[in-house]
Task: inverse folding
């Protein structure tokens, strides 16, 4: 029988009533003839509570025990979902990650899935079981310890199962009805997209659109898993939600598909570093070793053999970046006058695969911001994205103005 993966996020399993509603949707797909793999998150708020308990007990916790505690929320929902389905006379059972087994690396709290051998679950499907309910977000390391995949990781569990079982589709049920052209809380003109290309979704996810864990989109793109994001709060239909798919399947022909933002960016400038071969390596090597996610980089004009080097990174990594630079200065590999951190900035980005073939996107973006009197501090571009750093207080305004300028409220 064809396999379908259905993932329910925390708000979709927030209480017993919601679990019942989710189970009904599963029942509809079972009735259509699918063998269903249901991936569940913890009830909403549960994982935060568990993380809080760990931090309170042991601030410098053993990551293996962190995972043992934090993974437990999903176990509860998996069992409850299986019971609910059984009450509906649907043959179902629950699986924790290690029982499948979901084999992962040993990187606790941010493990990667290495393999999901389908044999155990397939054997049960062959015996007549119709639904395998799997606890998302968790797996088992080569050492036999429980691991977790990073916050939001059950999206990744779902896509990995869809790939491993060659599922027809992977439906991600959440509290929004799809992927929007921008955050509807910021622009009331935001429009739900029927389809979005993997590459665009990847940019939007990593730029702060929180619908899907970035890693899940990477996996879906690699294994060509058809991903659908839809609401578990609205009536189901075959066209519901947003399909994340190959770009050939996306019909819209416009340069920009969405405006993303990230509130928590910092702009860091090393004042007066030597302008010599190897300086960038000497700066960004230690930053990368310290695990800093450097995004944008600018090397300013040199004068008298000295230059300023600017980069952006998440605000929460500023202290770590400063420490890495101080250590590099002390050890003599770099020399700079001082390091200025501007933490009152935000990043706003226009994303679209259409940029590859249509010109003038950057010009429109800069003109729009200039008309609003917004100063651009840093610019970075890729093939399908233009990002700017601006003062945080203008972030909402910039998102709205750009959404208007690219006419994203209208279907192309
Ligand atoms: N429960 C986990 C979290 O809150 C995983 C997930 O829901 O995707 O991060
Ligand atoms: Mg999530």
Result:
């Amino acid at each position: 029988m064809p396999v379908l993966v259905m993932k329910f996020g925390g708000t979709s399993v927030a209480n017993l009533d919601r679990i019942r509603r989710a189970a009904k949707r599963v029942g509809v797909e079972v009735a259509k003839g699918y063998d269903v793999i249901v991936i569940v998150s913890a009830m909403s708020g549960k994982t935060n509570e568990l993380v809080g308990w760990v931090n309170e007990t042991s601030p410098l916790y053993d990551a293996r025990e962190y995972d043992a505690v934090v993974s437990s929320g999903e176990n509860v929902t998996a069992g409850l979902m299986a019971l609910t389905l059984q009450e509906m006379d649907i043959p179902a059972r629950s699986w924790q990650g290690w029982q499948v087994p979901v084999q992962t690396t040993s990187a606790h709290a941010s493990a990667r899935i290495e393999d999901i051998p389908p044999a155990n679950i397939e054997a049960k499907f062959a015996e007549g079981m119709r639904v395998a309910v799997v606890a998302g977000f968790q797996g088992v390391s080569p050492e036999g310890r429980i691991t977790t995949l990073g916050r939001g990781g059950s999206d990744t569990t779902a896509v990995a199962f869809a790939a491993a079982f060659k599922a027809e589709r992977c439906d991600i049920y959440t509290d929004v009805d799809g992927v929007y052209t921008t955050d509807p809380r910021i622009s009331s003109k935001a429009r739900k997209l029927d389809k979005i290309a993997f590459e665009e979704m990847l940019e939007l996810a990593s730029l702060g659109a929180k619908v899907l864990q970035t890693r899940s989109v990477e996996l879906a793109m690699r294994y060509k898993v058809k991903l659908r994001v839809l609401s578990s709060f609205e009536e189901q239909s075959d066209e519901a939600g947003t399909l994340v798919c190959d770009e050939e399947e996306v019909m819209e022909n416009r340069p920009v598909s969405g405006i993303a933002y990230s509130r928590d960016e910092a702009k860091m400038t090393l004042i007066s570093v030597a302008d010599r071969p190897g300086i960038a390596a000497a700066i960004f090597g230690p930053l990368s070793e310290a695990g800093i996610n450097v995004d944008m980089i600018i090397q300013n004009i040199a004068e008298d053999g000295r230059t300023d080097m600017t980069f952006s990174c998440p605000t929460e990594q500023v202290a770590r970046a400063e420490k890495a630079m101080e250590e590099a200065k002390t050890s003599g590999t770099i020399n700079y006058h001082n390091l200025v951190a501007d933490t009152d900035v935000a990043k706003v980005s226009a994303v679209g695969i259409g940029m590859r073939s249509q010109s003038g996107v950057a010009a429109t973006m800069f003109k729009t911001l200039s008309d609003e009197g917004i100063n651009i501090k840093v610019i970075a571009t890729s093939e399908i994205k233009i990002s700017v750093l601006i003062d945080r207080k203008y972030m909402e305004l910039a998102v709205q103005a750009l959404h208007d300028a690219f006419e994203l409220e209208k279907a192309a």
Summary: The two ends are 38 Å apart (CA to CA).
